[in-house]
Amino acid sequence: MNETFEDIIGVMRVEQRFPWKISHLRDHSAILDGTASPDLVLTDAHYLNSSLHQWMKGNIWIYQDRIVYAGSSMPEKMNGTEIIQLKDKWIVPGYIEPHVHPFQLYNPQSFSEYAATRGTTTFIQDNLMLLLLCDKKKALPFMQQFKASPLNYYWWSRLDSQTELRNEEDVFTNGEVLSWLDDPSVLLAGELTAWPKLAEGDDLLLSWVQEARLRYKRVEGHLPGASEKTIAKMTLFGVTGDHESMTGDDVWKRLEQGLAATLRHSSIRPDLAKLIRELKEKQLHSFDSLMMTTDGSSPSFYESGVMDQLIKIAIDEGVEPIEAYHMATYAVAKYYRLDYMQGMIATGRLATLNILSDPENPVPESVMSKGKWIKKDDVVQKQEFEPDWSSIKPLDINWDIDHDDLQFSMPCGMNMVNNVITKPYSVSIDASVNELSRDHDESFLMLLDRHGEWKICTLIKGFASDLGGLASSFSNTGDILLIGKSKQDLIDAFNRMKEIGGGIVLTDKGKRLHEIPLALGGVMSDQPMETLIEQEKKLRSVLNDCGYDFDDPVYTLLFLSSTHLPYLRVTQRGIYDVKKKTVLFPTIMR
């Protein structure tokens, strides 16, 4: 056999885990030897050296997508090398968002392209919607295509659906979970919303956690309000981190038990400033081993930025700037074992960095990712990468609803406590009428199978008092939600949603109030974030005018089916009591 060393390396699949072949590495070292030239040298800049925990003055040599040297020297050979003088500029690593739900109306590409213009260029992302919207064998290949992007995409492997699916055992098979955990782009298992099942003896779930740990993957918990013993038990089972702290005491308990703690600042939990203040009161000596996340917020939340917004909050709360930057770069990279590749400015790392005018202002003037300019001198650069969306199954509704489907006789309804919490209540009004009175805040609520096979009908209290109909294919499972006062408006909203291929449609008294088309599986928009932000702001405004008294309708619609929250949920299996883990009223076939 005439196998080359490159052939042998290819068989070993090393190049799938490390982006540079042997020949590339020789090219890189030739630049240090002075026999080849770098593509770019950033000179005379202050840059953050994370290993030394200080700002350094020096030069950064870049060849293609890699930093081949960072220090005080200049290259011996610079034939064709571009030199950029950065006196009075500051360079930090590209920001990392460690906990992304890339389907809150936006999609993985639209969110990341928007975030990158503010310096967030690495994303560790939820795979739940890929599992639910793609054919089983297409979800993993769909994820893998993002490796071709100039941005950095990593993924989770979900172990549960955070709802009650009719076919959960078909979605989360042992083979499917292990195939995701085997992929180098998958960095963690979780988030583990089904931790109560783990605690109560679900050995299949426990085996998956152990498989993740055997593969050196992290395991992200979902432990809001957990006691010290629960946190300890989850740590024993293999959970390595958690992002659900709501107080400084919560963070402290996680750190005491050896869990990594990610501080959250999101559209439904904007807690970061409070958490920092409370941790300071508890005399926490250093923040740079903590991480931060926006936890998949609604689109308009990101008008103020992504990780740059969180870094600024931390600095404003008195966190030393280097520590604040580490919370969004180096700490994340170390935790996920990526620091050999990114999260710091040093020899051998990916050329992913942000150029700032002031170290206390984390919004960059220029952004580079994998050696490509994403933004240069405040001008956003056009990117070539475009994913193939054909693996996302379109919402193809070839069936209709009529008044016979809209039969509401359930004795138990759902009462909204806040954006996402619903409690049971006894229905006392006559729900057999075609239109409910607008003198109260009770509305019809229906969950319909996206294929038209089953339904569950009840009432919801507290959503709105003056809305005829809302139809939404955006939900935790991609099934259809109908909410409103008028059965005819519900039918009109459903028909329009069907016509546009999925989305959120609001109607009232025969008029269309607003719509957000969601062309990708009926769950995600194909529009840029800037467009989607305005659409979501109008959705909130219209709903507020109709009596919606909360501030995040996107999460209200998403979490009506999510069983990781109390107390009552409407799911594919029926109306579900989360505390009792019981289906109170099952779905019925249409």
UniProtKB/TrEMBL annotation:
It catalyses: adenine + H2O + H(+) = hypoxanthine + NH4(+). Keywords: Hydrolase. Residues 90-374 form the Amidohydrolase-related domain. Residues 420-581 form the Adenine deaminase C-terminal domain. Its EC number is 3.5.4.2. It comes from the Bacteria. GO terms for molecular function: adenine deaminase activity. Coiled coil: none annotated. Belongs to the metallo-dependent hydrolases superfamily. Adenine deaminase family. This is adenine deaminase.
